[in-house]
Design goal:
Number of domains: 2
Shape: flat
Strand content: 35-45%
Radius of gyration: 26 Å
Strand order of the largest sheet: 11-17-16-13-14
Number of helices: 1
Structural class: mainly beta
CATH class of the largest domain: Mainly Beta
CATH topology of the largest domain: Immunoglobulin-like
């Protein structure tokens, strides 16, 4: 038998409450089963180090078909690191980059060594890849506005200001990265309120005095 005592306290309206106690017993026959989940993920451009909460069926966990990686990226092999950890190797020709949105990794048809299935709420992770000032790019390219309403600038450092220019150097739009995801989605509306037209344009950011200029193409019909 256990007893929980609670003294006099004030509620949210600063009104006093009476002291009270409650007696209870525990049931030692109940068995609390820990959920089998993906417990840790350490992402980088060329690998994903994944740890499970319990020893895992390694034949399943090292099968690249047991994982889905979105929206881009290709798992080419998987190394066993311990009875609970694996390292997913990413195709070096297609490294994971800051793309202005989150990546998503999900494990499917993987069981623990005791045969437990992954808990549905613990079978996936979302993650971001660190951004460096010279990783910037944009997509789709060329930007065909009739097929895609938005242009994404990716690899943009957090809180950076992105400047869009005509090839003559005239600044026509200024955008701000403010969500920490390393990207900016743009609808093509210029600073004067008009829509961007077909042509070649330049974009750049300034980080600590370093500036790198890129270009993109717009096709509007």
């Amino acid at each position: 038998m256990y007893t929980l005592h609670c003294g006099e306290i004030n509620d949210a309206y600063d009104s006093p409450t009476l002291a009270d106690s409650i007696a209870f017993m525990t049931d030692s026959s109940l068995r609390i089963q820990k959920a089998f989940v993906m417990s840790q993920l350490f992402p980088s451009s060329y690998s994903l180090m994944l740890t499970y909460s319990e020893p895992v069926n390694m034949q399943q966990a090292t099968d690249k078909n047991s994982y889905i990686l979105e929206p881009v990226g290709e798992i080419i092999s998987i190394d066993s690191m311990s009875d609970r950890s694996v390292n997913l190797i990413i195709n070096p020709d297609k490294p994971l980059r800051s793309i202005g949105r989150e990546y998503y990794i999900v494990a499917k048809q993987i069981t623990s060594r005791l045969g437990e299935s992954l808990h549905p709420k613990g079978s996936s992770f979302t993650f971001l890849i660190s951004t460096y000032w010279n990783d910037m790019f944009c997509y789709p390219q060329p930007w065909k506005t009739q097929e895609s309403s938005m242009l994404t600038f990716a690899g943009v450092p957090n809180n950076a200001t992105l400047i869009i220019r005509r090839v003559s150097g005239e600044i026509i739009a200024t955008l701000k990265e403010n969500n920490g995801a390393g990207g900016i989605m743009w609808d093509g509306i210029l600073s004067d309120g008009t829509s961007i037209q077909s042509g070649v344009y330049l974009y750049s950011i300034d980080m600590g005095g370093k500036q790198q200029m890129h270009k993109f193409t717009v096709i509007r019909k």
